[in-house]
Design a protein that fits this description.
Layout lengths: L15 H9 L5 E3 L13 H21 L3 H16 L3 E8 L4 E8 L10 E2 L4 H9 L3 E3 L10 H7 L6 E8 L2 E9 L9 H32 L9 H18 L3 E8 L2 H8 L1 H18 L5 E6 L2 E7 L3 H17 L14 E8 L6 H16 L5 E4 L3 E3 L4
Length: about 400
């Protein structure tokens, strides 16, 4: 891993208050400038060391209990590591659980920005080895260690001479890796320092796990269990947000209401379990057809709503027709051997063309959908226009 050298403006004379202020102002990806603490002129006594370590853990304990902001707590932990162990540079890599690869959450030094989009595979380099093995490692000389990943140095144009890396683990799962670069002096890296670093890594693991629990609880409050789409409660909140944003910046946006035709027949014929599975499949298919800025919701029962920010009514109708064809032409539940075919009634309304209020927009889109449902089914209608001809 690289040595991320401090820039020429980084000097030992920087005051502690300034260092603290700059750390607090840092943004989510922390390619930050270090403020290295100068080594003490006189080695502290053992008792002073112990008092300092107790103070560090006390401050970290307060940080863990006073904030649920993961970034803030992790930064506090890494600043304490910097303060106690004084590496040239340091970094915190977190594990992307879905992709099973490490990414740099916090990194210091002038080469840090180059690491922003870099990914490390398990087993790759010292950090990857630590993540894979779950063991701490001390590498006094990277030129003599086959695990060293020189490509990172090439990317950052830095030189890594030594590395100390410890896993950030919760139970049996590796959540990330803390790396200290060029912190090994002539006397080596003591077992006491390694034990301290591992203890600080445990604090980081607690902070990460706490944050994930909070995130999961939040997701459960806004997500539909069956389809994993957002739920109606979150739709109401996002509609308020989008109306405010569109009013302020003179944007258009559109709503698409989708109701599955004769969905009750699926439940009656194949059972509610297959009905729920069908809803989940269709929900995911709708989500995959949306842009990054679009939001898909399960409104209730077999109804879906799609919010299309910055989308005119004309463009929304194009999307509505594509989704209508997708539902109509796809054989669903293929993996169960059922190959179910189903159609949908679709309604569209737009802001500000049709209305400027949330309640009226929802009513108009719903009304357009029910116009289809109560007449032809398997079609698209638009507020203020009525039924639209099928598109090929």
């Amino acid at each position: 891993m690289p040595t991320l050298r401090p820039g020429p403006q980084d000097t030992p004379e920087r005051s502690t208050p300034e260092r603290t202020r700059r750390a607090a102002d840092a943004k989510p990806f922390e390619g930050v400038e270090r403020r290295r603490n100068p080594a003490p002129a006189v080695s502290p006594t053992t008792s002073n060391l112990e008092i300092h370590e107790v103070t560090v853990f006390h401050e970290l304990g307060k940080a863990l209990t006073s904030s649920l902001q993961l970034d803030q707590v992790l930064r506090t932990i890494m600043e304490k590591i910097n303060e106690v162990l004084r590496p040239d540079t340091w970094s915190l890599l977190l594990m992307d659980m879905e992709k099973q690869e490490l990414y740099f959450q916090i990194a210091t030094g002038e080469g840090a920005e180059a690491l922003k989009d870099m990914r490390i595979q398990p087993g790759q380099g010292v950090a990857g080895w630590v993540a894979q093995s779950g063991e701490a490692v001390v590498v006094p000389d990277t030129s003599k260690d086959s695990r060293f990943f020189s490509s990172v140095d090439e990317k950052t144009r830095t030189a890594t001479r030594s590395i100390v890396a410890v896993p950030v683990r919760f139970r049996e799962q590796c959540l990330g890796v803390i790396e200290l670069i060029n912190c090994i002096g002539p006397e080596g890296f003591s077992q006491r320092d390694l034990a301290l670093l591992e203890a600080l890594a445990d604090y980081a693991a607690i902070a990460i796990e706490n944050a994930r629990h909070v995130q999961r609880i939040h997701e459960l409050t806004i997500t539909d269990d069956c389809t994993t789409l957002y739920n109606a409660r979150h739709m109401n909140f996002m509609l308020d947000t989008e109306i405010y944003r569109s009013h302020r910046y003179a944007f258009e946006f559109s709503l698409i209401f989708i109701d599955l035709d004769h969905f009750k027949n699926v439940n009656d014929t194949h059972g509610h379990l297959m009905g729920s599975k069908l809803l989940a499949e269709i929900g995911q298919a709708i989500k995959e057809k949306c842009r990054m800025i679009d939001l898909a919701f399960r409104y209730g029962g077999d109804e879906f709503v799609i919010l299309l920010p910055q989308t005119s009514k004309e463009n929304a109708l194009g999307v509505a027709h594509r989704l209508h064809r997708l539902i109509r032409e796809t054989p669903w539940l293929k993996d169960t051997g059922l190959n179910i075919h189903i159609s949908a009634s679709v309604g569209v309304a737009s802001y500000p063309t049709d209305s400027r209020t949330k309640a009226e927009l929802l009513h108009l889109a719903d009304e357009a959908m029910y116009l289809v449902k109560n007449t032809t089914r398997d079609c698209v209608a638009a507020a203020g226009v009525g039924l639209l001809p099928q598109r090929g």
